[in-house]
Design a protein that fits this description.
It contains 7 helices and 12 strands. With 221 residues, the chain is of the alpha/beta class. The protein is globular, with a radius of gyration of 16 Å. The chain binds glutamine.
Length: 221
């Protein structure tokens, strides 16, 4: 395994925060990557480990080839998009998604997966998800909020999630896009086959159910 993969026993920061070290994933656990160019990578790695996946960082095309699924984290979509271009990852990622790679985009990740943005300025997008999305649609950083929302297909009551300078889907462009949750009438969880996207951050509130549902759909190795 390449040296830049996350070490087996711990995730960076765990030893500093005292977060519990979760058991090693089993040999059949899916390898789920987290795109690690910018954003809240470690939080996703931790949740993925907690739900039994083998979680690894993805910063290069060879690393992308080694994963069974990929999370695109929250962060700054313009920065992540530019880095995807600079690290020669944009086309390989588009090709794998077209090939059916399960992907989960959260917040900036949702923006990157969108086929269209509701803005004039251009920015690099991965695309694949047939929606039009508006960035920062719930207001500025200081308007960020936590919420409890019902998500279709997630059992056990409403999910605890965080909206941080969150985007909003303003148009669903294809009937294959399922809307699994809404806030103020706007879709905030959408799924189009193997492509999942959330406007919020499910990885910072300790509610692991959406990641578990996503990982459960990853075909066995
Ligand atoms: N507003 C950010 C963007 O446009 C996304 C914020 C987030 O991921 N929390 O990329």
């Amino acid at each position: 395994m390449s040296a830049s993969f996350v070490p087996e026993r711990w995730i960076p920061g765990e030893r500093l925060t005292g977060a519990p070290v979760v058991p090693r994933p089993g040999p059949d656990a899916p390898v789920v990557g987290v795109l690690s160019l910018q954003g809240d990578v470690i939080e996703h790695l931790r949740v993925l480990r907690r739900v039994g996946a083998h979680a690894v960082q993805v910063k290069s095309a060879p690393q992308l080839e080694g994963v069974d699924a990929l999370v695109l984290p929250g962060g700054e979509s313009t920065t992540i998009g530019k880095l995807l271009v600079r690290f020669d990852l944009l086309s390989p990622l588009q090709a794998r998604i077209a090939d059916g790679l399960p992907v989960l985009g959260t917040c900036a990740g949702m923006i990157l997966l969108s086929d269209e943005l509701d803005q004039v300025e251009e920015q690099p997008l991965v695309g694949g998800l047939r929606v039009r999305t508006r960035r920062n649609a719930f207001g500025r950083q200081q308007d960020s909020f936590d919420a409890r929302i019902e998500v279709m297909g997630i059992d056990g009551g409403p999910m605890d999630v965080a909206f941080i300078r969150a985007p909003r889907v303003v148009a669903v462009l294809d009937p294959t896009v399922e809307v699994l949750a809404r806030v103020e009438d706007a879709p905030v969880v959408v799924r189009q086959g193997a492509i999942w996207a959330t406007a919020f951050h499910p990885e910072v509130t300790g509610d692991d159910r959406l990641h578990a549902a996503f990982v459960a759909t990853v075909p066995p190795r």
